Amino acid sequence: MTAEPYTGPIGAADWHTGGEPFRIVPAPPPAVTGPGLTVAERRTVAMADAGARWTRSLLCGEPRGHADMYGAFLVPPDDAGAHLGALFWHRDGFSTACGHGTIALGAWAVTTGLVPAPADGTTDVVIDVPSGRVTASVRTAGGRVADVTFINVPGHVHARGVEVATSYGTLTVDIAFGGAMYAVLPADRLGLRVRPPDVTAIVAAGREIRDALNAADAAEHPGDPRLSGVYGTVFTEAAGTPVERPDGARRLHHRNVTVFADGQVDRSPCGSGTAARVALLADAGDLRPGDELRHESVVGSVFHARIERLTTVHGRPAVVPAVTGTAYAIGTSRFTVDPDDTLVPGFVLR
After folding, report:
1. Confidence at residue 5, expressed as pLDDT on a 0 to 100 scale
2. pTM for the full model?
3. 7 confidence band (pLDDT: 50, 70, 90)
4. Residue 246's CB: how many other CB atoms inside 10 A?
């Protein structure tokens, strides 16, 4: 039995966005809810606090979770300009950003009535996350959530053509920021496809690439060291040639699979990874304002992404991405701990 204190049942609402789980915990460990802190500071507290780490492990690990579990503690926002704050977590720690989670939080906030919304219309749910302030623009139709557009913090290209030594030989990757740092490369450089049968090999390669880049300090954020380090590896694949619409705008269709943290596979097209992809495509001139990226995941779910506006960050060109998807409630839970349970807070088998 763990030596960490346990104070009672933990309530959670489980959702999924494009197949990727998202466990919402409205009443988190008290260490992360104290007054006078930004959400970025709350993440630092959570990483250091034994109780927060224990609760995260309890909810992520088996038998209550699994190796690819994801969720968030709801915390106070930075100020009254946001409806709520979110501390995102996975089995290996606390992340700086989460697009699929932001989409789920927007849908949850409107569905539960936390943020009032009309039966037909669009409602902005403003959320403070460790990487900054984001918006989940929730469209309702007939009293139900139709879709959610995630307006992210500005994304930018960090580096192009970075060489990394791997068991596949020396590979070249691009690194971009979409709320977190991602290494991005076509899957066919490794002789792989963005398909379920190749996921095991993709996970191993994603870990290898991330670890090598981080060992070389290849992704130092220009403005906030807390956002440094490669969080995930995005493997891409074109799914057809761009289609020009009658108004002159283009639709691109790509597939991707994102391996993040220590080998977790995003079942969705990955919201912050899609944002990083938008920054790279915009930088290359392949995605212009008005164009659309149809981004498909390894399980076939789809996000639609575009450039909300052009901007600059730390003296370099950047884009504010908008990523549209939807999320669905799949259940509620009241997790408990038996005092005689010797497998608390849990375990993970890959």
Report:
1. 61
2. 0.96
3. low
4. 5
Q: Which of 29, 136, 119 is nearest to 82 (CA)?
A: 136
Concerning whether 270 is annotated as a catalytic residue, the answer is no
Q: Who's near 314: CB < 8 A, 6+ residues apart?
A: 156, 222, 223
Count of C-beta atoms within a 10 Å radius of residue 240: 10
For residue 261, give the DSSP letter: T
User: Catalytic: which of 52, 98, 145, 259?
Assistant: 98
Q: Is the pLDDT at 3 greater than 60, yes or no?
A: no
As beta bridge partners, residue 124 has: 137
pLDDT one-digit tens code per residue, 115-159: 999 999 999 999 999 999 999 999 999 999 999 999 999 999 999
C-beta separation of 156 from 336 below 8 A? no
Radius of gyration of the chain (CA): 20
Rounded CA gap, 46 and 56, in Å? 9
Calpha distance 88→95 (Å, rounded): 5
Pick from 328, 295, 322, 326: which is nearest to 306 by CA? 322
Q: What pLDDT digit, counting tens, does each position of 22-57 carry? A: 999 999 999 999 999 999 999 999 999 999 999 999
Please give the Cα distance from 349 to 62 (Å, whole number): 8
Q: What is the DSSP letter of 190?
A: G
Judged by DSSP in three states, 165 sits in strand
pLDDT tens, 171-188?
999 999 999 999 999 999
Task: Give the three-class secondary structure for 38.
Answer: coil
CB-CB contact of 55 with 10 (8 Å) = yes
The percent of residues in the chain predicted with pLDDT above 70, rounded, is: 98
- C-alpha 145/C-alpha 128 separation (Å) is 21
What span, in angstroms and rounded, lies between the C-alpha atoms of 310 and 37?
Answer: 30
> Helix 271-283 to helix 99-111 angle, to the nearest 10 degrees?
130
- Alpha-helical (H) ranges within the chain are 39-48, 50-60, 99-111, 199-215, 271-283
